[in-house]
Design a protein that fits this description.
alpha/beta; 5-stranded mixed beta sheet; about 375 residues; 4-stranded parallel beta sheet
Length: about 375
Amino acid sequence: MKAKLVVLFMILIAVFTFIGCASSGNEEVSKSVEENEEKLADEQGDLESQTVTFEDSTGREITLELPLERVVVINRNTAEALKVLGVDEQIVATGDTTIENNSYLGFDDRPDVGKTSEVNLEQIISLEPDVVFTYTNRPDSTLEEKLEPAGITVVRLNNYLPDQMDQELQLLGTLFEKEDEATAFLEWKQGLETKLAERVNEIPEDEKKQVMALSVGFLNSQGGYRIFPSETTEGEPGVGEGFATILAGGIDAADVKWDASEESTTILVDEEYVLEKNPEVLTLHGTWLGGYETEDAKEHEEVYQNIINSTSVPQLKAYENKDIFIYHTNLIGSDKRYIGVLQLAKDLYPDRFTDIDPEQYAREYFENWLGVEYKGVWYYSPKQ
């Protein structure tokens, strides 16, 4: 009997010991699960609340919460930069004639919120974007005053001025987590710029040509002269069409300066001023003549003949030499400047650029970086 009691007592000890261990093990497992859940929750919270602080191109400090899921772009140059980076789905609307002048970007299935001079603020608010991208000088501060109280951040970038383009693209790469794509594109772009700069450095100063960059639209329709200045009032690189002259190894025949805070990128001068400067070369620029959807140069020829027949251009050295060239703004004064200036340099100094084919690089850009067919008429010369 005593032996049986001892055995029973031993069994009871074993049972209680097992139960205690199991309970302790469950507590440890439960504690581990809770800790992992808390860790995952913290990590998820970090992702949801990730922020980045930066300065836009006006110098304004901005803090954004990432990732950016819905953006409105009323700057067609920024729209193109985002296309280069492969950012398509996040763009919920565009403006600034993106659909009209940059049809190859493929945003025509999304709302157009208007030109920078007449933006539809109510439509933007209804789209509930995280960010609106626009130019530094347009629209005016009404954009911030109306949108930011609604929780919509305004970021001002240009993505076309030569001294800002690379930094702005890198910033966009950061904001959209496309740093590798931005770096790869800039390496390609800077390779073309280096090629041009090395060749231009070989041109003696006394061989450089005097060039005046003008609005082709104003000259054609009004017979007047609106100049794209190559320099700002602060001594910085000026408007793209004008600064292209300097990049291509030319000398700006005009001495007018551009106030970068002004919306207009041209300065009106009188006929006497142009005749006095008497440039050796005229470069004429605009977005309405030529471009991606243009199939031939017929309209360019008509515009050229109208200018010759109705303005004082035939009194200039540029006409005597037939050194008058028409360029689409997108190619030489905007986001594809690094390609357009190669064409301008070749037009100015054909003997020094015989081995350079700018159209080859334009084709690479459209097909490799934008992923679309290369086509259109982007420049014209009566010498062709």
